[in-house]
Write a structure and sequence with these properties.
Blueprint lengths: L13 E2 L1 E6 L5 E6 L2 E5 L4 E7 L3 H9 L1 E6 L5 H9 L7 H5 L3 E3 L6 E3 L4 E12 L3 E13 L12 H4 L3 E3 L4 E3 L18
Antiparallel strand pairs: 1-11, 2-3, 2-6, 4-5, 5-10, 6-9, 7-8, 9-10, 11-12
Protein backbone atom coordinates (compact mmCIF):
# COMPACT_ATOMS: atom_id res chain seq x y z
CA UNK A 1 0.00 0.00 0.00
CA UNK A 2 1.24 3.48 -0.82
CA UNK A 3 1.28 6.23 1.80
CA UNK A 4 0.31 9.80 0.86
CA UNK A 5 3.02 12.27 1.82
CA UNK A 6 1.45 15.36 0.26
CA UNK A 7 2.25 17.68 -2.62
CA UNK A 8 6.04 17.98 -2.62
CA UNK A 9 8.88 18.41 -5.13
CA UNK A 10 9.99 14.80 -4.93
CA UNK A 11 10.58 13.82 -8.56
CA UNK A 12 13.69 11.64 -8.60
CA UNK A 13 16.31 12.25 -9.65
CA UNK A 14 16.68 15.89 -10.60
CA UNK A 15 19.70 17.18 -12.51
CA UNK A 16 22.53 19.17 -11.01
CA UNK A 17 23.03 21.93 -13.55
CA UNK A 18 25.11 25.05 -13.34
CA UNK A 19 23.35 27.94 -15.07
CA UNK A 20 25.57 30.63 -16.59
CA UNK A 21 24.61 34.26 -17.19
CA UNK A 22 26.08 37.77 -17.26
CA UNK A 23 25.10 40.48 -14.79
CA UNK A 24 24.33 44.12 -15.63
CA UNK A 25 28.00 44.97 -15.28
CA UNK A 26 29.04 42.14 -17.61
CA UNK A 27 30.30 40.06 -14.67
CA UNK A 28 30.00 36.31 -15.34
CA UNK A 29 27.78 34.45 -12.89
CA UNK A 30 26.85 30.82 -12.30
CA UNK A 31 24.32 29.14 -10.03
CA UNK A 32 23.33 25.57 -9.32
CA UNK A 33 19.80 24.56 -10.28
CA UNK A 34 17.97 21.26 -9.98
CA UNK A 35 14.55 22.14 -11.36
CA UNK A 36 15.11 21.53 -15.05
CA UNK A 37 14.95 19.22 -18.03
CA UNK A 38 14.47 18.84 -21.75
CA UNK A 39 11.07 20.27 -22.74
CA UNK A 40 10.96 20.06 -26.56
CA UNK A 41 12.60 17.96 -29.27
CA UNK A 42 12.06 20.26 -32.25
CA UNK A 43 13.29 22.87 -31.85
CA UNK A 44 15.55 21.43 -29.16
CA UNK A 45 14.67 23.21 -25.92
CA UNK A 46 15.54 22.96 -22.26
CA UNK A 47 13.84 24.42 -19.22
CA UNK A 48 15.20 25.56 -15.89
CA UNK A 49 13.15 27.12 -13.09
CA UNK A 50 14.63 29.85 -10.91
CA UNK A 51 13.40 31.94 -8.00
CA UNK A 52 12.94 35.65 -8.65
CA UNK A 53 15.37 36.56 -5.83
CA UNK A 54 18.32 34.91 -7.59
CA UNK A 55 20.83 37.13 -9.42
CA UNK A 56 20.58 34.79 -12.41
CA UNK A 57 16.87 35.52 -12.75
CA UNK A 58 17.35 39.16 -13.82
CA UNK A 59 20.55 38.34 -15.71
CA UNK A 60 18.74 35.90 -18.00
CA UNK A 61 15.82 38.25 -18.56
CA UNK A 62 18.16 41.10 -19.49
CA UNK A 63 20.48 39.13 -21.81
CA UNK A 64 17.88 36.70 -23.23
CA UNK A 65 20.41 33.87 -22.95
CA UNK A 66 21.86 31.32 -20.54
CA UNK A 67 24.07 28.26 -20.55
CA UNK A 68 23.76 24.96 -18.76
CA UNK A 69 27.10 23.50 -17.68
CA UNK A 70 26.67 19.87 -16.64
CA UNK A 71 29.21 18.89 -14.00
CA UNK A 72 30.75 15.47 -13.64
CA UNK A 73 30.98 13.69 -10.30
CA UNK A 74 34.54 15.06 -10.02
CA UNK A 75 33.08 18.57 -9.62
CA UNK A 76 30.33 18.00 -7.05
CA UNK A 77 32.06 20.25 -4.48
CA UNK A 78 32.33 23.18 -6.89
CA UNK A 79 28.75 22.65 -8.07
CA UNK A 80 27.45 22.74 -4.51
CA UNK A 81 29.51 25.85 -3.69
CA UNK A 82 28.08 27.91 -6.56
CA UNK A 83 24.60 27.04 -5.29
CA UNK A 84 25.41 28.15 -1.75
CA UNK A 85 26.98 31.59 -2.24
CA UNK A 86 25.31 34.61 -3.83
CA UNK A 87 26.42 35.97 -7.20
CA UNK A 88 25.32 39.40 -5.97
CA UNK A 89 28.32 39.50 -3.60
CA UNK A 90 30.68 36.74 -4.75
CA UNK A 91 32.72 35.94 -7.85
CA UNK A 92 31.62 32.32 -7.99
CA UNK A 93 34.05 31.31 -10.74
CA UNK A 94 37.03 32.50 -8.69
CA UNK A 95 35.69 31.09 -5.43
CA UNK A 96 35.15 27.65 -6.95
CA UNK A 97 38.43 27.70 -8.90
CA UNK A 98 36.55 27.36 -12.20
CA UNK A 99 37.40 28.88 -15.57
CA UNK A 100 34.88 31.16 -17.27
CA UNK A 101 34.41 30.78 -21.02
CA UNK A 102 32.50 33.37 -23.05
CA UNK A 103 30.09 31.65 -25.40
CA UNK A 104 30.55 32.70 -29.00
CA UNK A 105 26.91 31.85 -29.77
CA UNK A 106 24.83 33.23 -26.89
CA UNK A 107 25.30 36.10 -24.44
CA UNK A 108 26.25 33.93 -21.47
CA UNK A 109 29.33 32.24 -19.97
CA UNK A 110 29.95 28.57 -19.28
CA UNK A 111 32.31 26.45 -17.14
CA UNK A 112 35.39 25.16 -18.97
CA UNK A 113 36.00 22.27 -16.55
CA UNK A 114 32.55 20.70 -16.94
CA UNK A 115 32.26 18.08 -19.70
CA UNK A 116 28.91 19.02 -21.27
CA UNK A 117 27.54 22.48 -22.13
CA UNK A 118 24.16 23.61 -23.52
CA UNK A 119 24.15 27.12 -25.01
CA UNK A 120 20.63 28.52 -24.92
CA UNK A 121 18.68 31.45 -26.27
CA UNK A 122 15.74 32.44 -24.06
CA UNK A 123 12.46 31.91 -25.94
CA UNK A 124 9.84 32.03 -23.21
CA UNK A 125 9.25 32.48 -19.50
CA UNK A 126 6.39 31.10 -17.47
CA UNK A 127 5.66 32.51 -14.01
CA UNK A 128 4.70 29.56 -11.85
CA UNK A 129 4.69 31.09 -8.37
CA UNK A 130 7.87 31.00 -6.33
CA UNK A 131 9.76 29.96 -9.47
CA UNK A 132 9.77 31.18 -13.04
CA UNK A 133 10.40 28.64 -15.76
CA UNK A 134 12.95 29.78 -18.34
CA UNK A 135 12.63 27.95 -21.65
CA UNK A 136 15.73 28.10 -23.79
CA UNK A 137 16.26 27.00 -27.36
CA UNK A 138 19.46 24.97 -27.49
CA UNK A 139 21.68 26.73 -30.01
CA UNK A 140 24.62 24.36 -29.56
CA UNK A 141 25.90 21.55 -27.35
CA UNK A 142 29.59 21.40 -26.58
CA UNK A 143 31.20 18.26 -25.18
CA UNK A 144 34.72 17.34 -24.16
CA UNK A 145 36.00 14.78 -26.66
CA UNK A 146 36.83 12.37 -23.81
CA UNK A 147 33.10 11.99 -22.98
CA UNK A 148 31.99 11.09 -26.50
CA UNK A 149 30.89 7.55 -27.26
CA UNK A 150 31.38 5.54 -30.44
CA UNK A 151 28.42 7.34 -32.03
CA UNK A 152 30.10 10.74 -31.54
CA UNK A 153 27.58 11.81 -28.88
CA UNK A 154 28.06 12.23 -25.11
CA UNK A 155 28.00 8.95 -23.22
CA UNK A 156 26.26 9.02 -19.82
CA UNK A 157 28.90 6.86 -18.17
CA UNK A 158 31.70 9.09 -19.50
CA UNK A 159 30.01 12.39 -18.61
CA UNK A 160 29.29 10.95 -15.16
CA UNK A 161 26.72 13.64 -14.28
CA UNK A 162 25.52 14.42 -10.78
CA UNK A 163 21.91 13.99 -9.67
CA UNK A 164 20.13 15.60 -6.73
CA UNK A 165 17.66 13.81 -4.46
CA UNK A 166 15.22 16.37 -3.03
CA UNK A 167 13.96 14.07 -0.27
CA UNK A 168 17.33 13.59 1.44
CA UNK A 169 19.04 16.68 -0.04
CA UNK A 170 21.96 14.60 -1.28
CA UNK A 171 23.96 14.26 -4.49
CA UNK A 172 24.27 10.96 -6.31
CA UNK A 173 26.19 9.55 -9.24
CA UNK A 174 24.66 7.60 -12.08
CA UNK A 175 24.11 3.87 -11.69
CA UNK A 176 24.58 0.99 -14.09
CA UNK A 177 22.87 0.64 -17.45
CA UNK A 178 19.69 -1.45 -17.25
CA UNK A 179 18.90 -2.03 -20.90
CA UNK A 180 18.63 -0.37 -24.30
CA UNK A 181 15.84 2.22 -24.54
CA UNK A 182 13.02 1.52 -27.01
CA UNK A 183 14.18 -2.10 -27.09
CA UNK A 184 14.19 -3.81 -23.70
CA UNK A 185 10.40 -3.42 -23.42
CA UNK A 186 9.80 -5.23 -26.69
CA UNK A 187 9.89 -8.51 -24.80
CA UNK A 188 6.42 -7.64 -23.44
CA UNK A 189 4.96 -6.67 -26.82
CA UNK A 190 2.47 -9.20 -28.12
Amino acid sequence: MKKSIGAKTLAMPTPVWVVGSYGEDGKPNIMTAAWGGICCSEPPCVTVSLQKIRASYNNILARKAFTISIPSEAHVVESDYVGIVSGKTTDKFAGAGLTVVKSELVDAPYVQEFPLILECELVQTVDLGLHTQFIGKIIDVKADEKVLGDNGLPSLDKVSPVSFSPSDRAYYGVGTALGQAFSVGLQLKK
